[in-house]
What does this fold into?
Amino acid sequence: MTTTGNLLADRDEVAAAVVWLCSPASSFITGATLPIDGGMLADMAPFNQPEHPSAQAGRAPA
It folds into this structure.
């Protein structure tokens, strides 16, 4: 899988996150998801998508 920048994660990058999660530095992290995806998830967020034309039908011109 590649990111929008067409980059693959290096195993050292993933390993660094795993080491941090296993360290005392992450002791305050509970029940969270840590995406290690190079920003792919952020690029898929709804606010990054163009608005559908039908959503603008009822709006007054700006």
